[in-house]
Design a protein that fits this description.
CATH architecture of the largest domain: 3-Layer(aba) Sandwich
Number of domains: 2
CATH topology of the largest domain: Rossmann fold
Largest sheet: 4 strands, parallel
Distance between the termini: 55 Å
CATH class of the largest domain: Alpha Beta
Number of strands: 12
Length: 299
């Protein structure tokens, strides 16, 4: 006779499965054992904090770094210092049952936390938007929020799919210089997730063949590359205008196509400076800049 399992038992099994003790291996090879969903989480990186809020884990976060500033309500959380030199005594005193680190945290710090027997789980620093999606999956598993992570990933993948669909209508790929506000002309190479962001929005990063994440570009090389579009990442419009005027003042920069055609654009650096969901949410802004001809149908 076939055994029938009652619906109530099935529900109990499903709910219980989320509390079964599990061992997770992080991106540096550490293993953390969790007997139940973590209730006291410390985040060591702003992008991780953002994702935790998207996973509805804000009530489980007991401390963050001083650089965690989004969403705005995170500023009310206790801080443990910076992500390079946090206060270890404070971390220990808070008795976390899960510490979430990022490879932007120095490895000696990560090793120290692990040697103290603290439940540290470290996520690797990704170079692409796809690595962000994988990070969301991993955070969903280690926090026992698998379904919420899957839902968030689905929402972000919908934006990516819509962008991809719109780009099928064009073969144009403008050459793009992305730089940060200031006078040092910091830019991004192949190993930066911003390179992938430019590509996914239908542009070509003029430094896509530079095998680095970040570097200071030389003015003469920019002139030779002759970008059609310049994006300045700045904290506000005033800093953007200052950098814009600085570019205008550089010798022979008036030869650059982007400057001749006034194709210089402001993007809030806070939107795209972290490997967080806001990176994908900012993609439509880049699409409008690169391909205004495709934006008659709203995303």
């Amino acid at each position: 006779m076939k055994r029938v399992i009652a619906p109530a038992i099935l529900i109990g099994l499903f709910l219980g499965a989320t509390s079964v003790p599990q061992t997770f291996t992080d991106d540096v090879g550490y293993r953390v054992h969790l007997s139940s969903p973590p209730q006291r989480i410390i985040s060591l990186a702003p992008n991780i904090t953002e994702i935790l809020y998207q996973l509805d884990l804000q009530d489980k976060i007991i401390a963050v770094t001083q650089y965690c500033d989004y969403p705005p309500e995170v500023k009310e959380k206790p801080t443990i210092g910076g992500y390079i030199n946090p206060n270890l005594e404070k971390i220990i005193a808070l008795k976390p049952d899960l510490i979430l680190g990022f490879r932007g945290n120095p490895l000696p710090l990560i090793h120290k936390l692990q040697s103290l027997g603290l439940p540290i789980f470290v996520l690797d620093e990704g170079q692409t938007i796809s690595s962000l999606l994988r990070m969301i999956d991993r955070l969903g598993k280690v926090t026992f929020k698998v379904e919420k992570a899957a839902s968030l990933r689905s929402q972000l993948e919908s934006i990516l799919s819509e962008i991809d669909h719109k780009l099928t209508s064009t073969t144009n790929k403008p050459r793009v210089l992305l730089t940060f506000q200031g006078s040092q002309l910091w830019s991004c190479g192949e190993e930066s997730f911003l390179n992938d962001l430019i590509t996914r929005a239908g542009g070509i990063n003029i430094w896509h063949d530079i095998h680095r994440a970040w570097f200071v570009a030389q003015a003469e090389e920019i002139i030779l590359k002759n970008p059609e579009i310049i994006i300045i990442l700045a904290p506000d419009i005033n800093h953007f205008n200052q950098t814009k005027q600085f570019l205008f003042s550089l010798p022979r920069f008036n030869q650059i196509k982007a400057i001749r055609n006034q194709k210089i654009f402001f993007i809030d650096e806070d939107l795209v400076s972290r490997l967080s969901p806001r990176l994908i949410e900012a993609l439509p802004l880049f699409l409008v800049i690169f391909h205004p001809e495709l934006t008659s149908c709203p995303l």
